[in-house]
Every structure is written in C-alpha cells, then in structure tokens.
Amino acid sequence: MCNISLGTSGTIFISSNKFGVDKNNALHAFAHADGHYHLMGCMLSAASCNKWWMDDIIGTEKYADEQKAITDDKLGENHVYFLPYLMGERSPHNDPDARGTFIGMTMDTSRADMTQAVLEGVAFALRDSLEVARSLGIHIERTKICGGGAKSPLWKRMIANIMNLKVDVIESEEGPAMGGAMLAAVACGEYKDVEEAAAKIVKVVDTVEPEAALVEKYERRYQQFKQIYPACKALFKVIK
After folding, report:
1. What separation in angstroms does the CA of 53 have from each of 49, 111, 124, 207, 209?
2. Domain count along the chain
C-alpha cells in the first residue's frame, strides 16, 4: 500500500511485509505501526515549491487561477523542466548542495509553462523515489494522497499520469494529525489494530485514473527529467 503526502515537503510511504533498503539509502526503512515495515521517500520541497513560485516570484494568491492556463493540450508537452531542490534534496539524492533549477526555456516560454514545470517537477521527483521502490521488487498500482497540494485537481492528475498510479483522494486532506489520532485510538482500545482503524476512519471519496495516452507522453518527459540532476550535480557544489 502507498500514500503520498503533498505538503510542504513531499513524502511517499510504502508499506511492506519485508524489511528492505536500496544500496544507496535513497529510501528510508522503518518499523511500521502494523507490525511490519514501511519505506519512505521524502523530498524537502514539494507544495512549498508552488508556494514559493506563486507568492515570491509571481506575486499572487490566486493559485487556482494560475493553473487554469494549463490546459489539457499542454499536459505532457511542456518543454520546460524544474528541479524542485530549493532546500537541497533528501530522497533519493541525499544531496544538500542540490538547487532548484529551470531548464528548457525559450523565447516562446510562457508564465503558464513555468507554473506547469513547477508542478510537474515535484511529481517527477516523487516518481524518482517510486522508481527506487520498484527496483526493490515492490509492485504498486495505486496510492492515497493527502496534504495541501492535494486540493489541486490538476496536480493530482499530473501525479496519476507521471507515476502511472491510480490516485485515491481521501475525505480529509489532513495526514499526520489524523494518523496520530488513529494510533491513539488503537492504543486506547477503540480499535483492535491499525488496519481496523484505517478501514473505519479513512474514507476514499474519489479516484484519479491514469490515462494511457498521457502516461505515454509523461514517460518520455520523465526519461528526460531524470537526466538533468546528474548533468548538474557537479555544478551544484560550486554554485553557492
């Protein structure tokens, strides 16, 4: 099972019956509340990238209005890429020197293209962690999503297609506080275990399905995206 938290940081949690880590420690492995284990990939800047772009660069509070310009025909076609490493990066690169980077702009690049690149860059970076999990033999078909960024229908659609996962939207966007309350309820005996608590409390209200044609387009874009960090890595150590 999988959950994506699209908050200030971006986190992908993957539950597993077996303990396992990759050789580069790109993902972190922990004991899980259900008695087994979970893998976690955490990127340091996720929804905070969008907040930075909207508040500090564009200077607007109308996030939804900015996303309206990103029409269906633009999805999977953007020539601009964004590395969302505004505070260095944790998973999967473990690189404190990594920096946010735009690449691919031309004289035809629009404000909407830049906004789209920020949203897609976060989704691409989350996929980097998902790919590490897949390399460990973990098969994932769907994920739940929570966090402030999950308010955006466009962002959820991007994540579904970039990661090729069914994205289950839960009734409450809150993640950590709800999880803490669920654990407390189990400890108090209200539920016999975390599985029962989750079944009773966590309500899926919608599912965003990946679209085959868009998945194919984003697959090509992701293969380009994942080449950018290795190409820039050496520069990050001297650009300070």
Report:
1. 6, 11, 17, 28, 27
2. 1
